[in-house]
Write a structure and sequence with these properties.
- 74% of the residues lie in helices and 0% in strands.
- It has 446 residues and is an all-alpha fold.
- The chain has a single domain, classed as Amino acid/polyamine transporter I.
- The longest helix has 35 residues, at 278-312.
- Pfam families: AA_permease.
- One of its GO terms (biological process) is transmembrane transport.
- It comes from Enterococcus durans.
């Protein structure tokens, strides 16, 4: 007999590490260089503002899950409060979010590996990593949870180490003429080199860094005691992420003048190469590589669960409901792996991996903004107080403004228009499925 339910094997430690694994990845370790180049040291304000918005989002999502124990995914409460069509849009857009995020990570992995093997192919690196992680996800959800916890532990240890190194290097080399602490924080103009415009244009890349914080919503169906564990995770996660992000960016800016950041590599590696510590740069690059492996692992998990939940809502073939003997959605994982493989073929059409990374990051941000805004809209349907309603509305307006800011950057100007085409296509797809369901129901009634 086929299984159609998944085992509740994830603990509070697992879901917090999974969420950290999804949120602390390429956006911090590679995308932060682009964000700093856009805003200068003032990017610290961008991260702080984005953290406030993310806290509001997490609070809203927690309220929605805790009000009804039947909600097993984000799509469940979107369907309940905003209707079937909106849930259809959110499920498929969230799937696209993680597809784009996963491809971004796989692309970044190719860039990181070039630190040791300059002539290596990003395509072959991505295929090798993808194959290993698909096998891990097929074996068992507990293996996924433990591997993600292991990856996140290395990542967190690496960030702590890096922050201490940044402080130590800035003190040891303080008398050096071009040390970051003097160049970046010496005057108001050096802190705000591009004024408010720079801060505005850096928001999409900074928010891209936070993509994945809502991922704990996908673990509800596989979490033991979800009400208690979800509450703990949502309470702790935003503060921990802010510490890691702000601490890392401060460490970079204490050592490296923002103008010297190289978009070809992680700013963490640039920092250690500036003080000619090649071995240290290699160690940090390894930790960053593990971080991207972690985020790719999360992307495979997320996309397969989104397909499973969409099929449960009868907006996708029952084929995706198949649960293996190891209690994982096997068909969803295999389909996800195949789609990632096709996505990796973009390397044949975009020669510059850095350009591909930026395009994928922009697309990911737009999709996540839609999903996050939908969560806020659903939260407004709850009987909440005026303060919470105003907070949701302000956060929604902030997400809208970030989406519009993509028009300011030439590399991302077309992304909102591409996203519009995506939603038009989804609407046509929904109407076709809805008509087919009506015909099936009428045949059954006859």
């Amino acid at each position: 007999m086929e299984r159609t339910t998944m085992k509740k094997a994830l603990t509070n430690r697992n879901i917090q590490m999974i969420a950290l694994g999804g949120a602390i990845g390429t956006g911090l370790f590679l995308g932060s260089a682009k964000a700093i180049r856009l805003a200068g040291p003032a990017v610290l304000l961008t991260y702080f503002i984005c953290r406030i918005a993310i806290y509001s989002l997490m609070h809203a999502m927690g309220d929605l899950f805790l009000t009804n124990s039947d909600f097993q995914s984000i799509g469940n409460f979107i369907h309940y409060y905003l209707g079937d069509r909106w849930a259809f849009f959110v499920n498929w857009t969230y799937w696209l979010c993680w597809m784009a995020a996963g491809l971004t990570e796989l692309t970044a992995i190719g860039l990181y590996i070039r630190f040791w093997f300059p002539d290596s192919s990003p395509l072959l690196s991505g295929i090798l990593v993808l194959s290993v992680l698909v096998v891990v996800n097929i074996v068992a959800v507990r293996w996924f949870g433990e591997l993600e916890s292991f990856f996140s532990t290395i990542k967190i240890f690496g960030i702590f180490l890096f922050i201490l190194l940044g402080i130590g290097i800035s003190i040891w080399h303080f008398q050096t003429p071009h040390i970051g602490v003097k160049e970046n924080f010496g005057t108001i103009h050096s802190f705000f080199p591009f004024g408010l415009t720079g801060i505005a244009t850096s928001f999409p890349m900074v928010l891209f860094s936070f993509d994945g914080v809502e991922m704990i919503g996908l673990t509800v169906g596989e979490t033991s005691d979800p009400q208690e564990n979800l509450k703990k995770a949502i309470k702790c996660l935003p503060a921990r992420i802010l510490f890691f992000y702000i601490g890392t960016i401060v460490a970079i800016l204490l050592v490296v003048p923002w103008q010297n950041l190289d978009l070809k590599e992680s700013p963490l590696v640039t920092m250690l190469q500036m003080v000619h510590w090649r071995k240290g740069a290699g160690m940090i690059n390894f930790i960053i590589l593990v971080a991207s492996l972690s985020s790719t692992n999360s992307a495979i998990y997320s996309t397969s669960r989104i397909l499973y939940n969409t099929a449960k809502e009868k907006n996708l073939s029952k084929w995706f409901l198949f649960i293996s003997s190891r209690s994982v959605p096997l068909h969803g994982i295999l389909f996800t792996g195949g789609m990632f493989l096709l996505g990796l073929c973009l390397h044949f059409f975009v020669a510059d991996s850095r350009m591909l990374f930026q395009l994928l990051a922009g697309m990911t941000t737009v999709c996540f903004l839609f999903v996050w805004s939908s969560i806020l809209c659903a939260h407004l349907k709850l009987p909440i107080n005026l303060l919470q309603k105003n907070r949701d509305k302000v956060t929604f307006l902030f997400f809208l403004m970030v989406g519009l800011s993509l028009f300011f950057e030439s590399a991302t100007r077309m992304i909102p228009l591409i996203s519009l085409g995506w939603f038009i296509g989804l609407n046509l797809m929904y109407r076709k499925i809805h008509v087919s369901h009506k015909k099936e129901m009428s045949v059954e009634q006859k």
